[in-house]
Amino acid sequence: MLDRRGRKRLAGAASGLVLALTGLLAPAGTPAAAAVPANDWLHVQGNQIVDEAGNPVWLTGTNWFGFNASERVFHGLWSGNITEITKSMADRGINIVRVPISTQLLLEWKAGTFGTVNVNTYANPELTGKNSLQIFDFWLELCKQYGIKVMLDVHSAEADNSGHNHPVWWKGTITTENFYQGWEWVTNRYKANDTIVAMDIKNEPHGAQNESPRAKWDGSTDADNWKYVAETAAKRILAINPNVLVLVEGNQAYPRPGATWSSPNTNPDLTPNFYNTWWGGNLRGVKDHPVNLGANQDQLVYSPHDYGPLVFNQPWFDKPFDKTTLTDDVWRPNWLYIHENGTAPLLIGEWGGRLGQDARQDKWMAALRDLIVEHKLHQTFWVLNPNSGDTGGLLLDDWKTWDEQKYALLKPALWQHNGKFVGLDHQTPLGANGISLGQRYGDGGGEGDSTAPSVPGQPTASNVTSSGVTLTWAASTDNVGVTSYDVLRGGTVVATVSGTTYNVTGLAASTAYTFSVRARDAAGNVSAASAGRSVTTAAGGGSGENQGCSATYKTLTSWSGGFQAEVTVKNTGTTASTGWTVKWTYPSGTTVGSVWNGVSGTPAVTVRNAAHNGALAAGASTTFGLIGSGAAGTPADITCSAS
Questions:
Q1: pLDDT, position 445
Q2: 204 catalytic residue (yes or no)
Q3: Where residue 182 falls among pLDDT bands split at 50, 70, 90?
Q4: What is the mean pLDDT of residues 468-480?
Q5: Torsions phi, psi of 362, nearest 5?
Q6: pTM (2 decimals)?
Q7: Phi (first) and psi of residue 589, to 5 degrees
Q8: Of 75, 83, 547, 557, which sits 20 to 30 A from 339 (CA to CA)?
Q9: 638 near 581, Cβ under 8 Å?
Q10: Buried b vs exposed e over 247-262: b needs ≥16 C-beta within 10 Å?
Q11: 549 with 618: CB under 8 angstroms?
Q12: SS3 of 232, please?
């Protein structure tokens, strides 16, 4: 029996034969049509998802919940018609639907036990007499008819409308082994059905370090290690169907440098030991402990979630922000680096919310939408359902009318080509306003733009200080237009900018760095990196560096009349230090109220190391925090000296 890669190779050889014969048989001057894959299975190449012919695809869709809840069927069928709702999604350009389910439901389906479902058969006569599994199968056929693909998502252990609040994949009588077996059963049932192309293994594993239970991410085989459980579940799924994509979400918390999962959530001085973000949104652990699927690594997609302040007012929403600051402070360190470094594709499984109620919310949603479009990140918008309490839905309460304002925001992040929506089925066009994948790449849709921008010019360096440098480069050219540039330091993306200049900050004194840039166009093509520019920063003395150490000041949060800040002190020398002193001047009216992990002096602000953190090895760092009164702002004259 051929494995999946054998089938791919055979398909490739067959395609070449078909092309050759077609070329021989076609009339002179008639272009030969490209061979279209017979199956719609997808796999991974670098940070892209591609079809069996290697054509890049863009998964752009939404979520429709209900099968995960106590009703055990899509919500809305109490008034809306399943066929009309599904067709409207296809007509509006939704090419994939993420369907939350529960492990309990999978085990019930496996056992053949079915309860009464909440379906209005007057509105849905086609569902009369059907149980929940039969309704799901009926809906799969509708998706096939309209060119929609499906992703299953185990949203919770139990069939519970609030089950997603439970932090882990086991609960009550539902064990981790039940979780694996539920996935194996549903994978086996649909292994020949390429309408279901992806499995999101578990929705939003979460929990802070000091909570129990909680999901952690490390290299262990501990029962609460989400990385290990996700890896195990994925391998068991792929042993049955090696063609399906498997999505691994993040968790909530990850240890800061120097901390471990055995560290307390905070130090006695309240300094945090963990990075915390959205449930499912923390993928920092991939850098240290990537998911390893062996021969099936090319089916792995990472899937963060991200929301705005109306869902929860995270600290980064309490200060001025825009797409650049969100990228640098939140998205890149938590998950965007996985895409930028070419490690694996990203699919943002949940994002969305209400519009017109909070300017910050609207700004966040537009910024994330623009990031998705810029990088061609895969996404499933939360949510179709109008009964999602903290976000609302794409549909209004009648389960028929679309929220046109919200859809207008989403529409640029739906895959379109030449004014048509693009589906993921090679034969069936997506709804009434779309084309099939075969049309997009072979049968009249055209190859589209696959030309990368020209290579940008080698950066020039100016304004070199002990902590930063200004980079400038000659622009790229492109047939559809350059949209942005990635700035790379030593091969790793540190920023994405729209212009041809970037001010690099936070560098160590007397240190050599190499910078290069690459261009992106509107079609998602990326140029090769430019020639590198080597820069050596100046010796300490300015911009927060002096005598072998650096100090980087960051405002964490602010409120009327006060703020919280954090300063990172790094030994930039070649030998260990025994102590350090950081100094700066606040404007009139701004004072320090309290300091932890350091000792403050007056009248100007002077912070010296505490007894436990003065000794720093070369290259090591520590942090101290403070509460201030008055206006927040980064001091311009911060200096550091080591002893």
A1: 41
A2: yes
A3: very high
A4: 90
A5: -65, -40
A6: 0.76
A7: 100, -10
A8: 557
A9: no
A10: bbbbbbbbbeeebebe
A11: no
A12: helix
* Torsion of the alpha carbons at 570, 571, 576 and 579, rounded to the nearest 10: -70
Residue in 231, 249, 350, 545 annotated catalytic = 350
Give tens-digit pLDDT for 96-148.
999 999 999 999 999 999 999 999 999 999 999 999 999 999 999 999 999 99
Average pLDDT over residues 420-436: 96
Rounded Cα distance between 264 and 254, Å, is 12
The phi and psi torsions of 46 (rounded to 5 degrees) equal 60, -125
Are the beta carbons of 588 and 607 closer than 8 angstroms? no
User: Is 126 labeled as catalytic in the residue annotation?
Assistant: no
3-state class (DSSP) for residue 551: strand
Is residue 59 exposed (0-12), middle (13-18) or buried (19+ Cβ within 10 Å)? buried
Return the pLDDT at 591. Answer: 82
Q: Which of 204, 249, 340, 545 is catalytic?
A: 204
Number of H helices, E strands in the chain: 12, 32
pLDDT tens figures, 435-467:
999 999 974 444 456 788 999 999 998 888 888
Contact indicator for 97, 74 with CB cutoff of 8 Å: no
**Span 375-393, mean pLDDT?**
97
What is the overall mean pLDDT for the chain?
A: 89
H or E element: which one contains 51?
Answer: none
Six token digits for residue 67: 């099968």
Tokens 């099936």 label which residue?
296
CB contact burial 6-19 (16+ within 10 A = b; e otherwise): ebbeebeeebeeee
**Contact 496/374 with Cβ under 8 angstroms?**
yes
What structural domains does the chain harbor? 43-441 (3.20.20.80), 460-536 (2.60.40.10), 545-642 (2.60.40.290)
Of residues 642, 450, 456, 449, the one with CA closest to residue 551? 642
